[in-house]
Amino acid sequence: MELKVVKFGGSSLADANQFKKVRDIIFADKSRQFVVPSAPGKRFSADTKVTDMLYQCYDLASKGENFDVLFDQIKERYNTIISDLGVDLSLEEDFNAIKIAFSHKAGRDYAASRGEFLNGKILAKYIGYDFIDAANVIYFKYDGSFDAELTNEILATVLKSHTHAVIPGFYGSMPNDTIKTFSRGGSDITGSIVARAAGATLYENWTDVSGFLMADPRIIKAPKTIEYITYRELRELSYMGATVLHEDAVFPVRIMGIPINIKNTNAPEDKGTMIVSEAPADATPTRITGIAGKKNFSVVRIEKDMMNQELGFGRRVLEAFEKNGISFEHLPSGIDTMSVVVAESALTDKRDHLISEITKSVEPDHITIEDGYALIAVVGRGMIRSKGTASRIFSALYKSGINVRMIDQGSSEINIIIGVDNEAFEDAMNAIYNAFLD
Ligand code: ASP
């Protein structure tokens, strides 16, 4: 039997009009039984998310300053939604309790979590679903990490006694009963956790775009939407900067093989993007799934004759990075050269120290650091099957007069990483995207 967990992001619940769309979506499909809301987001681009208002308000409270004005604005956001929807609900008691807790410095996480808590109460009342406080079903460990097993056990049991419920996103509780939140955008994670515990057949993540785009629309004009993307491809693309879904939201559903469908609250008929373990056989075959990239990387190049025969060479080089607290991104290597690609920001004032350390431990013939690299990841499960992917990429770059400064193909064969000059980044992205339009 179908059972869907549906998560709605902040822009989907920013005002009464958006709440109405959400209700229509939920009521359009009986299997949408468990709902995870975010706090009200922006109603227009210059607007402030309630979560940010709560942080600001709490910062004033924790400094002992007067926070009445900001607190009243937050109350106003909720009260307007309640009155515009015409629901019979008063949050006055909650507002009073929250205000007292702010004065007693209940913590920034507690403050931020009230955004989802209050929105969840309104939504539950509006659609007639039960309200389950996430503090009673989502748990963190003493060290602050998420307690997946305890949560799953308790949440699964609690969900069994509800057929329809709203569980606010973003927070849970610590062993000492204080409130803790996930990192920003964390309602995506709650949705995934609820989907796992409920044994859902699908996790629908409703937002304000119709799925993942093949590339960043700020760089590529009107990129196509991705129909199916595997968890692994998604990981590669998010790592290179593509964002729609919180990175940690994949893990809970991935263990259970529950697909995630990214959907648009403002265009519910659009199919959106399906995130799956494996694309179904009838999915339109694609050569590449998406491209993503970032600027400002540095390449530390170490050269030494006969390096390939020197046992422990790579380990000693990487040890120097580790000692300096620098994590590396890629390791494209030749027979007598080893290149370590790092984010420029990770090197800062550590350059001289790093070079002298590497020099001491492996005595290279040459060592240089080159800045100003942009990296582009071309990702696609279809690459393994289709010939000529690399040649398409490189001839497109050649035709656009772009110099390729580095190439790295992961052994998984689902990505090719290309390094170009920072200045050529946008042109390179366009050239590569256009090469795969057919
Ligand atoms: N409201 C929180 C935030 O703005 C969590 C979320 O929306 O997922 O980050």
Any overview of this molecule?
It is a single chain. With 438 residues, the protein is of the alpha/beta class. It has 2 domains: 4-276, Acetylglutamate kinase-like (Carbamate kinase); 290-435, VC0802-like (2-Layer Sandwich). Helices cover 38% and strands 19% of the residues. The chain has 14 helices and 15 strands. The strands form 3 sheets. An 8-stranded mixed β-sheet has the order 3-4-2-1-7-9-10-8, sandwiched between helices. Strands 12-11-13-15-14 form a 5-stranded antiparallel β-sheet. The protein has a two-stranded antiparallel ribbon with strand order 5-6. It is globular, with a radius of gyration of 25 Å. The chain starts with a strand and ends with a helix. The site of aspartic acid has 13 residues, from helix 7.
Contiguous uncertain segments of 5+ residues: none
| Highest CATH level, the class of the largest domain | Alpha Beta
- Our count of helices gives 14
Q: Give the SSE order as H and E letters.
A: EHEHHHHEHEEEHEEHHEEEHEHHEHEEH
- The amount of beta strand, in percent, is 15-25%
Number of domains: 2
**Rg (C-alpha, Å):** 25 Å
Helix-strand makeup class: alpha/beta
User: Outline, from the CA principal axes?
Assistant: globular
CATH architecture of the largest domain: 3-Layer(aba) Sandwich
Largest sheet: 8 strands, mixed
Question: What is the assigned CATH homologous superfamily of the largest domain?
Answer: Acetylglutamate kinase-like
Strand order of the largest sheet: 3-4-2-1-7-9-10-8
Helix content: 25-40%
**Which fold name is given in CATH as the topology of the largest domain?**
Carbamate kinase
Distinct small-molecule ligands in the complex: aspartic acid
- Determine the N-to-C terminus distance: 39 Å
Counting DSSP E segments of at least 2 residues, the number of strands comes to: 15
